[in-house]
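Data availability (excerpt). The following record was deposited with the supplementary files.
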Amino acid sequence: MIRLLLWVIGAILLGGIVHLSTVLTMPQAATQDAFSRLMPLTPVNAVVPLAAPTAEASIMPFMDPAFAAAVCRYDLSGGSLKLNAPVSQAYTSVTFYTRNSVAYYAINDRAAGRRTIELDVMTPEQHAQLPEEEDVTAADRLIIESPTTTGLIVLRALAPEPGLMPMARRSLAGAQCHIEPVQ
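Predicted structure:
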């Protein structure tokens, strides 16, 4: 009886190890992640509106049809990125993802407390190269450190009613992301 119990415990442990290792390696092994699907559709360092999701097709998984969405695929190898996003009347959120679809920062219009969400995205090395007085003079400037040089910024604006979707799309159409010139 003890021998059978040891075999069962060993099988459960082996199954747990296989399951855990599979779950941990899946994100690196996936070839059709959001970044790969958006690469042919979006230029680098520019905001592009995404098509509304339908029951048959959606560019990214779990897209909510009540939200207008836009994306900026960024590359920080040429310098830091400046993001300006006007907020909609209902709700606006901005989420930052690494190249491997790991969310590392998010902000919404209520947290920003302004009519526009203004952010600077840079690598830790670029942030370290900022002059000391730059941080002091730009105290109202929000600096986001990206763990990778490439990634995605997803902007979403809520349309509380289907008739307000054009308003949500217009608010995202005013969003900009561009590389700041090095001084």
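Summary of structural features: The mean pLDDT is 86.
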